[in-house]
Amino acid sequence: MNADRDLAVNISEEADRAKGKKVREAYGGASVKTYRRALIITITSVIIMLLAVMAAVIYVDPFFHYHAPLENFPYLVDNQLSQNPGMAMNMDYDSVILGSSMTVNFNTDWFKEELGLDAIKLSYSGAYPKDQANIMDVIFKSGHDVKAVFLGIDVMTYSGGVDETKYPIPEYLYDDEYINDIQYIFNKDVLLNYILRPLADPDKTDLSTVYESWWTDEYYDKQWVMHNYEPPARVAEAAEEDEYIERVKLNMDVNICPYIEDDPDTEFYIFFPPYSILYWNDVICENHLDATMAEYRYIAKRVLEYDNVRLFFFPNQEWIVTDLDNYADYTHYHKGINHYMTKCFADGSCEVSSEEKMEQELDDMRLLIDKFDFEELFSHEY
Predict the structure, then answer these.
(1) Mind spelling out the 3-state secondary structure of 82-140?
(2) Are strands 351-352 and 309-313 parallel, antiparallel or unpaired?
(3) Could you tell me whether strands 148-152 and 95-98 are parallel, antiparallel, or unpaired per DSSP bridges?
(4) Residue 352, SS3?
């Protein structure tokens, strides 16, 4: 009897275990299927979302990497490093404005009015010669018939390293490789700030004044300039006259002159911007006046060797540089000065046509500095 009972109990337990196994398998199988289905839905959703982002970026193309701007999209253009190469490649133009923040207040409409040119402005604030070379690479590979390049030269940057740029550039926007465009196509900042934000708050950038300085007219004021100006510490030992020449030579050899030589049908309007008299106070305090004059002299000599260069010298325009109401700080001038320079490009005023003429301009510059009453300027409270 006991044996029969034990056998019955064992059979019952085996049946329960078998039934539990079937239940677990059934529910476990359902869980696997559910998880698999959820995973497929998630992956599919991510792929669709990525394809939608890619399509939006390529279609709108806020950095103009693939095509010219759409006619009715309110493009925000405020990123020189990322948007300049696309504009150079895909926009319509026959001339280019290049340089540092000394060029941002040019209005391209003036170039149409004064010179009959369809200019595009591709400024880089704080630009080094390498920055100019990077964008000229794009310009002259773009297939445009470039009639003129207006290049502002800041001598203080030409003694920098030959490969030095003001900021690291996004290489994937400057090269011809499409594989690395993933950094552009799936870029959150591009989607949010250059596609969705303009759609939400449309205010299309006027390309004729693109990158224009934020300083409004009231900031161009002597009181404002002097209040914010701090002269540098005085340096006792003067820099040698040829202190910077070797580095300037290398920058001209590598970053500037090759483009002038390789593009003889393009006329290069090279100009030296008019910094205020306070800039020259910095030069005097830092004791490199002769070395700075030598930079101007050397660059002028180099570019005047080319038949397709016109050189303009503005630093000794006394009516500009000694009137601090023309400036918002010690170097940045009002857009009215940019308009004046445009007129000079058109009528030849302030043009330097020979080394002898350049020497005369530098003599005038030195005389202006020597006779200026810095003591009187700094004797007032601002």
Answers:
(1) HHHHHHHHHCCCCEEEECCHHHCCCCHHHHHHHHCCCEEECCCCCCCHHHHHHHHHHHH
(2) antiparallel
(3) parallel
(4) strand
Tens-place pLDDT, residues 24-51: 554 455 577 787 888 787 888 778 888 8
Q: Angle 327-119-134 (CA atoms, 0-180°, nearest 5)? A: 85
Nearest to 368 by CA among 334, 317, 332, 324: 317
DSSP label at residue 69: P
Q: Which CATH architecture has domain 80-377?
A: 3-Layer(aba) Sandwich (3.40)
Would you kindly state where each structural domain of the chain is located, as residue ranges? 1-60, 80-377
In this structure, the strands spanning 95-98 and 309-313 are unpaired
List, for residues 275-288, the tens digit of each pLDDT value: 999 999 999 999 99
| DSSP code of residue 333 | B
57 contact partners, CB below 8 Å, separation of at least 6: 184, 185, 186, 187, 190, 191, 195
